[in-house]
Design brief:
This protein has helices at residues 8-19, 37-48, 67-80, 107-117, 141-145, 157-164, 178-182, 186-199, 212-220; strands at residues 28-32, 56-60, 94-100, 130-137, 209-210. The protein is an alpha/beta fold. 36% of the residues are buried.
Length: 224
Amino acid sequence: MGKDNQPKARQAADLARKSGKRASYDRILIVCEGSKTEPLYLGEIRAEYRLPTTNVQVHPSQFGTTSLQVVEYAEHLFVEGDAVQDISPRGFEQIYAVFDRDDHGTYHNALAKAAARHGKLRNDLNKSVSFAAIASVPCFELWLLLHFEEALAPLHRTEVYQRLRPYLPGYDKGQPGHYANTKLHLAVATQRAEHLATLADAYDSAAPYTDLHRLVRLLTTLKP
């Protein structure tokens, strides 16, 4: 048998991946309104930081794209699991529902339901589970725009796109690479999102707002 020249650390990592071993930090379930853009963006972060799927799962809502449907699917996926997607029932410590304000009539109901579920569900270790809404007003693309410029006045989705495209030429939903194309400006985007949070909150129907910085910070600072 030939000598294996791989470093021991890499051999251990390969073994852990093949065996499905999870890291010691919390298991996180993220359910997104969008079927491509948000899952791709968050999936790129997971890949860059080598977060195992046994700890971090990102999925689009299968119940529909209204805000309330996203929250309801997140709860359903947590409680019931999904054998096809290799998700065990109640196998998480943290749940995040990612959705936009836009013109969704169930937006405020979704915020309320997520808040009502926080700490009320119990996982497979009989521990209470955090449940949080990650909302953006008007849309996810506001978070991307904040990497390049301030956005303090109310905006419609179309205006966000118009202002974003000079920085990300040809931007369209469902494209890969948005994290790679914005990550150099992550710190300033976080500062701008935090500033917006001092001016309004997720319940405001018009003022620009996003919680994406909270979720991105979590994913980029997870420790084994």
